[in-house]
Backbone:
């Protein structure tokens, strides 16, 4: 990430086309996902080296929780956005977004 | 809320002080909870009559899912309400409600 | 519970037909389920008195967690029993019980 | 598995040091984990291309479920192994493994 100056370059090519806050969040999301990818690769190394099953399961739970946290962060952002949109564009649009968000929450709770 | 003094009139003294839609929902919620209460009492009967453990577990999963569905229904209503409130009262208030709702979602996902 | 001597009477009619440890567990299970039943009745009171949605959700999460803990306790006992049975009755029988238990665990994890 | 001599060829540095059945499972586990790694990389592409939040969440739920299925498969194997061990080595050892497995199940159910 320190080694990807292109990232900020990409953002700055079209100044103002995205709020800086959003760009920052996007980088944070990608960082989190790269860490989760690392956890899943770590699981492969554990299986390859015949690590004791229970220890593998502990690491699976950690990866699952990391994915859930990522989802909860994304959802929080999305709901905040829905509300701002409701203020700007009116109730009707936003109520449909809420329906959609509720379905996504149900999938998360049940997965 | 600040604009609905009838609310503080509270209770049966002011019949019809709540929209029928809301009342209907409340009855539906109570009905669901009574059914879940029945499921939990059913679990007690299973344990009392020494029902096979795996069959008890199947019924526990059913009760857990019923509680989750109840929570998801409540949450959906709440989010819809947040959005309406955002339109009526402005973004700031509603954003705080979103924070609160996100915390509740996290508790649900992790429980 | 202090007022149900019949409980121990029921056990003592056929002395030795169940290990005391089991009877003790059964009482503990019923106690837990009665507490969960109380939690679900508490939820009904919250809904009846128009408690703020987020506070209701917090109590739903608590009841869900209590049900899960009950299930996990039951499962732990069951697995211990499977293993003892494997020693007494041979591998084949017990492997079938393991299949059954795994299916129950999957239902719990996914509910 | 008895019919896949190639499998033992894979482990050929120390031929026969692991039962072919186990090797087969290990390959299946690694395959699943590689697919999950692909899902997590897919999530990064979705975030990078500013995919709509709800669609990202759907894919997160899919990855979470895949991790859970992997864990459930591992656990099922482990429990079957515990039971075989109980028959071979006695109840005491196996009961400790059950305690350990129950703790792992609790982490899964609560994650």
Residues:
């Amino acid at each position: 990430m320190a080694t990807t100056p292109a990232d900020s370059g990409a953002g700055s090519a079209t100044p103002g086309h995205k709020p800086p806050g959003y760009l920052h969040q996007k980088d944070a999301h990608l960082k989190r996902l790269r860490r989760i990818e690392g956890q899943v690769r770590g699981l492969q190394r554990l299986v390859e080296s015949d690590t004791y099953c229970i220890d593998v399961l502990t690491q699976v739970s950690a990866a699952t929780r990391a994915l859930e946290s990522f989802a909860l962060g994304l959802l929080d952002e999305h709901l905040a956005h829905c509300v701002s949109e409701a203020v700007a564009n009116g109730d009707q649009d936003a109520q449909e977004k809420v329906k959609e968000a509720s379905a996504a929450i149900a999938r998360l709770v049940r997965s």
Chain A has four helices and no strands. Residues 1-21 of chain A have pLDDT under 50 and may be disordered. Chain A has one domain: 23-110. The longest helix of chain A spans residues 53-89.
